[in-house]
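Record 1 of the preview.
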Amino acid sequence: MSARGVARLAAAALTSGLVAALALTGAGRAAADDGTTQSQSGATATIGGLKTYGEAVVHGDSGDEQVAAGLFEMSVDGGGMLQTYCVDLHNPTQRDAKYHEAAWSGTSLGANKNAGKIRWILQNSYPQVNDLAALARKAGAGSLTEQDAAAGTQVAIWRYSDPDAGADVDAVDPQAEKLADYLEKSARGQTEPQASLTLDPPAVSGRPGGLLGPVTVHTNARTVTVVPPADAALTGVRITDRTGKPVTTAQDGTELYFKVPDDAADASAELAVQASTTVPVGRAFASESRSQTQILAGSSESTVTATANATWAEQGAIPALSAEKDCAAGGVDITAANTGDQPFTFDLMGTEHTIPANTSRTVTIPLQEDQVYDFTITGGNSLERRFTGVFDCKTQAAESGLATQTLSEPSPASVGGTASDVNLAATGGDSATGVITGVAIGLVVIGGAVLVILRRRENPMGD
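->
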């Protein structure tokens, strides 16, 4: 990564330096937890770099810059491969960055009225359409190589994903440019694809001696495997259907419950579901660091997972806590649902809030673009939930520049090739990556106080 990229990340963290620890004190008894991060849904993967690509030129106020344009490849945790295009031209890519499947609302696509057109492009071009002769005829392009097709598709996507960031971009190869023009003009809006696998809600709570839930499975897989809590043999907690019958497999729409013994001590548990499926084209992939957002163009059979947790207590407040990045609201939504018989009172950055019994409220933590966040929410009796990530909702960082795909350094393969390990010229894969991450997190932790907005959303739990 360039020195400018390092400076940009550090400056973004410093200017947005917000305290990232939220201490909550519950009224009554809450449950213990192991302090894991927020619930996982869908596929997680590691980016391997550009694999099939051509050449493009981005026109800007400071002149033209040559960039590589084409398909990235990711390896899925647990097995499988993904092909993606980027929707974040002006942000850097880090070598071997970790990514997770995400809703459009948690990325720049959420506020992009043309996001549906990008999905149309993905479904009607390479690699979903692998008959390049037919694709060339539609585009009036004469003939297309895989490299031309990948470059033309990426250029068309950038024209819809990055217009606010000044993405005036053309493919260098004339055939790729014709394809880009055809795709741009032909694109029609489509809806966001469903997640490959999610559990809803990701957190539930209640009293021991009954069924806590339901937690509903949403998936495009034919069947999913249900993994019980790790300490189920010790605690006696079981995952069941609504009749209390143990469940080991599930399908889309299946409702799962935590069956907690009568004599169970106040605690919590987590269930996981896992499946092998193809991830739907058009799903967004957000990085767990500061690496450009991707959108899915193709998927092999891949391992997908989702988790949900349950909290129980004999009496008092019983909170269920979850979080979701909300780019439209400009922050992270933290939802606290209290299924107990007493109010759940907590102090959040010096302000006390109370959630009545049988009520749910959502608190939005405002964040600045590029901010690394690490929220730990604690309650009575050692309840702890940690939510971490990077608030990446725009296609342009605080300091604009093409640190992403500029071919300013020699690469392992020439432009227009299919390489086994081609990363971006400013790859972000050098030893500075870990330093950047550490510095950014440190600056956030020592930053100033965060403003917290309690959104006017109060939902009775029975609704």
